[in-house]
Amino acid sequence: MRRLTPYLLALPSWMWLAIFLVVPMVAMASVSLQTGNAIDGFAMTFSFSNYSDALGRYSTQLVRSLFYGGMATVAMLVIGYPVAYWIAFKGGRRKSMYLFLILLPFFVSFVLRTISWNFLLADNGILFGTLKGWGLLPDDFHVLATTVAVVGGLTYNFLPFMILPIYVSLERVDPRVVEAAQDLYATRVGAFRRVVLPLSLPGVFAGVLMTFVPATADPINAAILGGTANTMIGNIIQTEYLTNLNYPTASALSFTLMAVLLVGIFIYARALGTENVLEAAAR
Amino acid sequence: MTTSAIELENVVKEYLSHGEVVQAVKGVSLDIAEGEFFSLLGPSGCGKTTTMRMIAGFEAPSKGLVKLHGQDVTNVPPNKRDVNMVFQSYALFPHMSVWDNVAFGLKQRKTPQDEIKRRVGEMLEIVDLTGREKRRPREMSGGQQQRVALARALVNRPRALLLDEPLGALDLKLRQAMQIELKRIQREVGITFVYVTHDQNEALTMSDRIAVMNDGLVEQLAGPREIYERPATAFVAGFIGTSNLLAGSATGGELKIGGGRVLVPGHEGDVRVTVRPEKITIGTEEPSNGLSAVRGTVAEVVYLGTYNSYAVSLADGADATERSEGANQTQHGNRDDRAAARGGTIITVFQQNALDAMATAERGDSVWLSWQAQHSYVIGS
Q1: SS3 assignment for A226-273
Q2: Which of A183, A186, A199 lies at the smallest CB-CB distance from B85?
Q3: A40 Cβ partners below 8 Å, 6+ apart?
Q4: Which one of A28, B246, B268, B307 counts the least CB within 10 Å of its CB?
């Protein structure tokens, strides 16, 4: 009995995962191979052509999503790493306060935050309207409904998920190890490159994972900040599901996206050296 | 006079702590000779580590100068100083193998590949780690990590090696073995060692000279024997080993204490005298005239293997005090409390357990304590 206790304690979580993750996935996988329509119902026909059809129609949006997600991830890395570094090494006694500030936007709903960006970036809004009034910007200048707006929105919305894991890995770097590198003739830059950066790679890996995946699949930023030329795969899936009631196509697209992301993550982990990442994480 | 490896001139380090200026180091001047094994000894918070960090370049002095081999390096960053440090917790690079850890400094200095290979190999041999090049630091024992840290610093052939309590994390046996090992390596490579420790035994065992620090100042700078035999201040007497401190007013070169006398030739007026416990002889007969002699009652006998420790309560000690610290802190601490409660003076005596054990006094015995005049050391402050 005692030996079973840990398993029994884990049972609720396993059941949760089974019911709310595995069952819907299996259901969706099955739907992705069905044909029919919302009125007459769907029937299982093992039509793998659902996948090729969906990809044929929406490959532009899929590629665009990966591109936007990738750009946003790079932007988050460039912005987030220095912030995490600064908090970890220069934060002093105020560290928790800075971390709280990083998390503060989460107290406002995701959609509202994105809409406020819409206000901010509006063609004649607070920012550009004023600048145009002063003659600092041409009248036809606009950001909304462009790639910049969507990638900017994604970057803004997912940034904390990049900062936090990097912060955690940097926080664990012993400052004396950095001193040791400097004592052994490394410049500040050299010490960062040879010691701090490699030791923070597990955090970078986690941060990229936690931002690239949701940013690529996100429908909200493209819907609120983008135009018709910025539609992402998330928007297509949403429309197919909720508007067109074309469940097979929506499911096929979802699975395609998942597969592409998994392959991408796998390649990324290989490139970064899984061994190093795992080893450093195990410290 | 040999050449100076490291000179500190009136070095002061101030910190801002909660809006107040705190002096961690209050004006330290040192002159450490080439090839010397020099120790900075003191309790935690005495400024010894800060002093070392200023030599390494991790802290800039608020005032004063740091010179390495006659060159002023006060404002030179650590990566441009020809000294290397062994950190208290080793600070090995966790993501690198032993080999890469040791080769780090040489690579940073763009040493040719084949020379790196040769020197790292040689150094790993010196610290007895050949065959473990590919290990990661966390796969090694504390003693091995310690040796990697040592090799990583020494392989660069620095003109001075700074060691910050490098043996603190090791157990007693390993620590003693490493003490001998360190001394051997120092002789072998002939590099100046600056050693920070709070362990008096470590400092006495290994050092050529010791600077005893307290509260940001050097209390005494001398060789181990002198530090032990002739402590300059009450602090040094108390911090290094166990010591009896007697105070009183001397007349005619004698201090009247405990129904007897302490000989202090050439001193008049208020004096303070230290006597090491092992210099004192315990007996039942009144000793001859040429000796310092006091009378008391044995309050406690503690058997300590190679020697017995006696606590002798003086017959009259109204204006005498006793103080001891160090190895037997707990035991003495307790006794001090009791002595204080009775208002008497307690003298600690160590008597070796030789075959012909002389007076084996027991608790409650009335005894004479005697020692030669030269073993009473009148301290300054």
Answers
A1: CCHHHCCHHHHHHHHHHHCCCHHHHHHHHHHHHHHHHHHHHHHHHHHC
A2: A183
A3: none
A4: B268
From chain B, pick out residues whose CB is under 8 angstroms from the CB of A169: none
Give every CB contact of residue B122 below 8 A, 6+ residues apart in sequence.
Answer: none
- Please check the confidence at residue B252 and state whether its pLDDT lies above 70: yes
Contact between A185 and B58 using a beta-carbon 8 Å cutoff: no
| Structural domains in chain A plus CATH codes | 58-281 (1.10.3720.10)
pTM to 2 decimal places:
0.80
pLDDT tens, A197-219? 999 998 999 999 999 999 999 99
Mean pLDDT, rounded, for B104-118:
95
Size of interface A-B (CB pairs under 8 A): 68
Strands B71-72 and B307-314: unpaired
What tens digit of pLDDT does each residue of B143-165 get? 899 899 999 999 998 989 999 99
**CB contacts, 8 Å: A190 with chain B:** 79, 108
Say if residues B185 and B154 touch (Cβ distance below 8 Å): yes
